[in-house]
Every structure is written in structure tokens, then in C-alpha cells.
Amino acid sequence: MAGSSRKKSDNPSGAGAGAGSLPADFDLETLYGAVGGRDEAEEEDELIIVPPVRLLPREELAAAALGVPLLSAAIRLARWITPFRPVDEWGELGSELETQAAMDLDLVPEDGDADVALGKVAAAWALAVDLELIRVGDADPASGEGEGEVARPGAELEVLERGDTDSVLEAWETAASIVAGTAVEAEIDLGVEPPAEAAAKDPDEETESEYAELEEAREETQGLLDDALQVLYETRAFAATEAEQTIPLGVLAALLVVPDGQEPDAEMLGDITSVMVTLDPMLQDLADIGMLEYRPIDPTLFAEGEGEGEEEEPGPDTAVPEVDAEQAARFGLARLTPLGVHGVRQWLLEDGYDAPLVGVHAQGDAAELLEGICGSANVLPEEEIREWLSGREPLLAATELLAAARGNDFVAPIRRMFCARALDHLGGPAEPSVRAVLADPELGGLATAWLTAQGATGLPELSPDVRLWNTIDTVAAHLIDSAEREQVFRELVVEVTGGRPSTALFAELWRVDHPYTTAVLDAIGEVHPDKATAKEARKAAYKARSKAGSQQQG
Q1: Chain centroid to CA 409: how far?
Q2: Model confidence pLDDT, tens digit, residues 349-376
Q3: Which residues, in sequence order, are CB contacts of 451 under 8 Å at separation 6+?
Q4: Which residues are within 8 A (CB) of 206 and not within 5 positions of it... i.e. 6 or more apart?
Q5: 148 and 260 together in one domain
Q6: Count of structural domains within the chain
Q7: CA distance 541 to 340
């Protein structure tokens, strides 16, 4: 796949960047490495992130591939020519044999449309030849093949008929690449009128210019298709239901045209329509090879538009007509199939992207789970946690998680935050393990907060030192997890500082021995809405910084 070319907003996404950044912290361009308008240094420094996805087992993917109508027709057509069939001077079956093949292979549609049937045969033939399921060569008179050229089953047909999973998927991946490339070539339309003086130009220069224009058009069209598939891939990664994974073609086009955070203007609306019209046949072709579930644009929409004539421009009080789901679907709907997710991921891997699978961090113990979640930029924490907890005994899982959450290193605060989220999934059965760490200086605050949220009463009061340390630790976790938006972080800061006079609180907080004390106080000073409190936080941060410097010198 070509590099992404989607538009980018100038507004940063997220409350801050840094270690522990999660997918929600990046805009669509960053997720897929759009490179427009950046110099080489920026390209080298930017982190390219592709969200993790789930794949069906390879055996199921292979079965789905063999069930794709176009690939299935190509395989059956290769069997049908056994032991050989004569071909014309262009290496084709000719109309008579194509008609016979359409009937024998049940490729004639219910309405009996001969053109559609012959189109299916032609597409299956082209794919079968490209995949070497069919080979065309000189006839062997000694074998009774007559003269001229004939088509015979190719060596790859026997491989596919054995049903080996890897071979089937490899053949389907090749077929998908062929179909995608053909779809792009079919959409290239330079639309360049030759200038009046073209006849006086050097023919070689004219040819070179046309070739350059052709390459530019090819790259632009390929980039558009790549971007569309990447959006669909991301949608499958983040959306839970089939309905949420399905994107209206107009929305898909808008995501490719309109910069993040902007409203489309009249020019952009025209570009959106143009992108929809360009993508529609290409997505239909990819649907034929099983990459997409696609409902194409209803062709009657164009006829309706032509018959309506010119409309008056809407005024400020003009009511916008409501469009129901069925009407919206007439403009096209797209969704990657499980095969499509596999195919796009293979293309991303071939282009050097890190395209992980969900569950990659859930294969080891609790320490590996939490370290993986905290240390990877392209990770879905909740998915990894659910995967890890699946089939584990709750009490033992909670004990292991809490042990892995200990530590006073720079990643420990967010490790404890994800531990708490994992405990939320376990619920009540985890309570004995959590109660066992109430006296732990690093876990006592987490345990008290979690048990309180579970409705527990009569818990021992935290010591002042543990309470203050936990305050810094909690804010630090949200500071590291830059997926947290500024408003959420601001609300937390107000919550942890709102119950006591700020002077007294900060007089204690700056003394806390925690690796994030200074950073937390700095952050409070930046975002707290109360100016006096923010000032006290900045003063405390200065003291904490001075203390840290003195300790390093000592």
C-alpha cells in the first residue's frame, strides 16, 4: 500500500504527548503515517501507529477465501477446461466457449443477462491466468490437441485443490493485489487535452510528459484507495458492532477530504462527491474478491439529479430535509470483511508498518501484560486486559496483577492504573486479594479507592504519607496516559486539591518522595482553574525541583 495522504488538522490531539501515549491520542494522519507537507527529519521523528485488530483463525480465513465468488469461479473455470480447450489468437476462449462456460459453471444471473454472465467468465478467466491456475501455450498435435494455442490447467490449480491453508491464503492475497491494481488502472483518467502546439514538439518529449502524467494519476488514485482502506481498517479495529464498522461512502470520502476539526466548504463538498464517484467502482471490484461488504451508489440517483433541474440556493431559514437510513444507504456503504482485515494488514506489513494483533500482550503473566500495555503506542488496553483475564481464576489473577503493579519507577503509576481497570473487570471475586494489600505503601491507596467503589465500608484510614503519595501517583498516571483529555485531567486536579486549603496541601505535597512529584505539581499549576491554587502549585513545584537537585548533588 502507498503511504497515507489524508489531511491533517493543525490542532493537536490529546492533553499531551510522551511515553505511554495510546491510540486515542493521535489523529487519523498520525495513525497511518501521512507524509504530505513534511520534511525528511519530521518523517523520521514521527511515530507511525496502526491500531491492533482481531483476525479469524487462518483456517477460517482460507475457507472464506475459497468461498469468494470470483476466486471460486476462477478455480472452477480452470477445472472446466480440463484436459484442454482451444483459445483464439488473443489467448481467450471466444464467445461460444465463454457462453458454454457461463452455463456450465452456473454464472448466468437469474434475469438471464448474457452480458453479466460473459463478464463473470472474462473476470474469472483473467484471474485464473494471472494466478497460473490456467496456462496458455502451443497445442500438442501428438496428444490430440490440434493446432494453434490451447488452455490447460496450471500447476497452481493442484496446489489450491489440496486446500493447504497457507497456499490458499497466499493465492487469495495475490488475487486481491491483482484486483486492486486493476481497479486503480481502470480509474486513471488524465483528462489532459493536448495543446495546440503539440504537433511541433519532439515526440519523445511528449511521450515522456504523458508518462509522467500517467504515473502521477496512478499514484494519486492508488493513494486514495489506500487511504480509504486504512480508514475502514481503523474502523474495524475500534468499532464493536457490525453496524459501527460500516461507513457510508459519503462519510468515508469526507474523512479523506476534510481536514480534522474543519467543516466542509462548498469546494470540499464538490471534492467529496468526486472522491465518492472515484472510489465507488474500485470498492465494487474489491468486494468481488471478498475484501469488502459493499453497497454501491444507486445509479438511479444520477438520473434523479439530472431530472430535477436547477434548485434555488438555500437561505438561512431553509429546512434541511431529513434523510433516513435507507436513503443514506443509496449513496454507498462499505465495511471490511474478515478477509479484508487480513488483506489490508498484510499490505501494511509489506510496507514496513507495525500492524499488531489484539492479544499480543496477553500471552504471558501479569507483569508482561501491564508492561506491554504501558510500553506500546499501538495497543487497546481494555482488549488486552479482557484477553488476559479470559479463563483465569479471579482471585489468583487479582493477586498476580497487584504484585505486578508494585514499583517506584517512571511507568509504575500507569501500571497501577491499568491494574485497577483489570480489577474492575474481575469485580467482587477479587476483593480478598485487594484487601490483602491495604497496608502496602504503594498499593494501599489503590486498594482503598477500589474497595470503596465496590461499596466496601469500615476500611482502615490511610496514613498521611500514603494518602499524599497516592495523590501524586494518581495524578501522575493520568498525566502519563495522554489519551486522557484536558478537561478530564482538569476535573481530576480540581478533585484532588478541592478538599483542603491549597497552601497547606502543597506544603506537604512537594515533600513527597515520588518520581513524578515535580511533574504533577507543574501540571496542576498549568491547568488548575483557580489562579491562587495554580500559583501555590507552581511554588511547590519549584521547591520539589530544588529538593531533587539537592539530593542529586548530595
Answers
A1: 32
A2: 999 998 999 999 999 999 999 999 998 8
A3: 431, 434, 435, 438, 459
A4: 198
A5: no
A6: 3
A7: 52
- Tell whether 383 and 523 lie within a shared domain: yes
What is the extent of the structural domain holding 425?
366-553
Q: State the first-to-last Cα distance of the chain, in angstroms, to the nearest integer.
A: 56
Q: What are 182's three cell numbers? A: 486493476
CA-based angle 360:43:8, to the nearest 5? Answer: 85
3-state secondary structure of 136: strand
Residues 470 and 439 in one domain: yes
Query: Which DSSP state fits 439?
Result: T
Q: Which residues of the chain have pLDDT under 70?
A: 1-48, 189-206, 302-325, 482-485, 499-501, 550-554
d(CA 193, CA 188): 15
Residues 417 and 502 in one domain: yes
Segment 136-158, tens digit of pLDDT: 999 888 888 888 899 999 999 99
> Does residue 545 share a domain with residue 430?
yes
Q: Which cell numbers in the block locate residue 421? A: 481497570
Q: How far apart are CA 289 and CA 172, in angstroms?
A: 8
Q: How far is CA 55 from the centre of its chain?
A: 13
Q: With 0-12 CB in 10 A as exposed, 13-18 as middle and 19+ as buried, what is 407?
A: middle
Domain assignment present for 311: no
Name the residue type at position 454.
Q
476 and 387 within one domain: yes
Asked if 133 contacts 157 with a C-beta cutoff of 8 angstroms, the reply is yes
Q: How far is the C-alpha of 530 from the C-alpha of 525, rounded, in Å?
A: 9
Residues 121 and 90 in one domain: yes
Which has the closest alpha carbon to 402: 383, 421, 388? 421
**Residue 203 located in a structural domain:** no
CB atoms within 10 A of CB 355: 20
Which among 333, 320, 375 has a CA at the least distance from the CA of 248?
333
Distances (CA, A) of 322 to 248, 326, 328: 16, 12, 10
User: Cell numbers at residue 151, please?
Assistant: 488452455
pLDDT at 26: 33
Q: In the numeric block, which cell numbers belong to residue 113?
A: 443477462
- Residue 199 domain-assigned (yes or no): no
Amino acid at position 270, single letter = G
In a domain, 185, yes or no: no
| Residue 239: alpha-carbon gap to chain centroid | 10
Q: Is the peptide bond before 432 cis (omega within 30 degrees of 0)?
A: no
Contact 365, 400 (CB under 8 A): yes
- Tell me how long the chain is: 554
* Same domain for 412 and 545: yes
Residue 417, C-alpha cell as written in the block: 492504573
Instruction: Please give the DSSP secondary-structure letter assigned to residue 471.
Output: H
